Amino acid sequence: MTATLERPLDEFETLLEESFSKSYAVADIVEGTVIKKESEGYLVSVKGAKMEAFLSNKELSSDEPSLEVGDIKEFYVLKEENDEDAMLLSLKRIAFAQAWAQLNDAKIQGDTILAKVVSTVKGGVLVDVADLKGFIPSSQLRTGTPFDGLIDQKIEVKVLEADPKKNKLILSQRQAVAEQRDQVVDNVLASLEEDSIVKGTVVRITDFGAFVDINGIDGLLPISEISWQRIKHPSDVITLGDEIEVKIIKIDTELKRISLSLKRMGENPWQQIEGQFEEGQVVKGTVNKITTFGAFINIFPGVEALLPVSEMSNENVNPFNMFKVGDEIEVLIKRFTPKEHRIALSVKDIPSA
Hints:
Blueprint: H1 9-20, E1 29-38, E2 41-46, E3 53-56, E4 72-79, E5 88-90, H2 94-109, E6 112-121, E7 124-129, E8 132-137, E9 154-163, E10 168-172, H3 173-191, E11 197-206, E12 209-214, E13 217-222, E14 243-252, E15 257-261, H4 269-272, E16 282-291, E17 294-300, E18 303-308, H5 319-322, E19 328-337, E20 342-346
Parallel strand pairs: 3-5
Antiparallel strand pairs: 1-2, 1-4, 2-3, 4-5, 6-7, 6-9, 7-8, 9-10, 11-12, 11-14, 12-13, 14-15, 16-17, 16-19, 17-18, 19-20
């Protein structure tokens, strides 16, 4: 005898209901039909929903301040439905949803979009994209550091993350610039010549130098090429956003790099001092830097000479106890070879009066 499987009628109804129901999440776009107007909003029938959804009057769009029963529209899901509460809908956020969808498409396709910088914050900048707020981390800025000169600028960016549910939009300027550089680098390099003078904009400053935008590609301005005088950091001389004239000292077509110089825009002080100094001469200088092996003395603007610790005294001395930065001292030029950019000094061998 075959056993008959029986299920209660209410269980079949539940299964039937679940087969037609669909789960919608926040930020989904759903199609619905207006079935009733109430004082505070509208009831909307959404296919697959377990109960009528609700559209508050506050969530109507400015273009359409009222609806009629029977209207079929696309709605933005503000809140998911559950066993107790109905789904909450919005019309005014449809534009935002469309913007999010476009941003997600841009991310997938790798498209470049425009963003307007509205403010600098800790760790990056905030931007406006189609009325949505986005964030560019400092590491994704071309400058590497946010600065006030970026505010109100429209910059090209790539989409790294676009999550409407978390209201999270992360962008990258560096990726957009890198792509742009790849497209124009060959043409720009072909138009440049070594030893030529070009104008550029300081777009990034690091401990080892600065990057200068030359016709759309970044050239490196090493710290050693910023000034003839010793500087602690590039920011001692230049700032982000500065427009400067620089000399192209090297073009590497294989690596597609440009090396620049700012100090060579002026006269070489090592050439200026030829004929002004000689070995055996006693001159005054200023202590610029002290190390364990000696001190660097500025004897002419842009010219540093080395005073070895062995030339400070006939006795063993600690250079940090002998001098401090900024001291003005008398030194003897023991060796003078300006073409090699070298001058050796002595204090202990200064002739007695």
